[in-house]
Amino acid sequence: MKRIYTWAAKPASRTVTVSDLRANKGVRKYCQVSVNTAEESHAAGMAGIDMIACNADNVELVRQGNNELFLTAGLGHPKYATESDVVRGAFKALELGADAIITARSMSVVSMLANEDVPVMGHLGLVPRKSTWVGGLRAVGKTGDEAFELYQRFRRLEEAGAFSVEAELIPGPVMKEISQRSGLITVSLGSGIDADVMYLFMQDICGDNETPPRHARAYGNIAGLKKQIYEERIRSLKAFKEDIFIDNFPSEKETAGLDSHELDKFMENLEKLNG
Q1: Which whole number is the average pLDDT over 150-160?
Q2: Cβ-based neighbours of 81, under 8 Å, separated by 6 or more
Q3: Per-domain boundaries in the chain
Q4: Whole-number Å distance between alpha carbons of 104 and 166
Q5: Bridge partners of 186?
């Protein structure tokens, strides 16, 4: 555990720092998962996950569940549209406890943040919201020319000042060669085992989705458990209704009782009133 000061100038501890990631590039692998609630970040910590990532709007909530894991906050395009929006959003997320910022914006935006010593993670390969440029949701780098252009983008991102990059849906052999030739900490999301960090969304890992994407693997079955809970809820409601109509609910067990002596007194008072 490393002692640090947060961007809010508060003492804290971290399991991983940017310096650790750089020192261990090519030496050991790290794992990262997405989290967006206190419960999810607490579970990640209990499971020994190295790094977590969340939406920038959820940093404060996520830190309530875990205040030790390395946290990267994502700045979504619609809300953080202008450069000033990006700067304000980045420093707000850092103030609330983020350790790094991820953005799929231009190299100039990356440089703008990096020039302020903000640890910036870029996003290359398939960027889903920019998928129209590559003809849809597909792996990027499937041809020699496309792979070489992708490598050039990695170089430009590093020159812009990023320390890391989420590498999404890049063919494994291409990712291996690029990672070996880049100083960036490469974070593989569906890009094979030869990156520095392996990353998946928590929903895919835990089986929240009945059909996870091809690049993911479900290690749990939360979707199945949710279905069981839904079906059990309906069964319970039906049984409740049926018992009502056969006078089986409430029974004496669920109904407040009365001492027989007190009941007799009550009845006597009623008779006097009606007498």
Answers
A1: 98
A2: none
A3: 2-220, 225-274
A4: 9
A5: 165
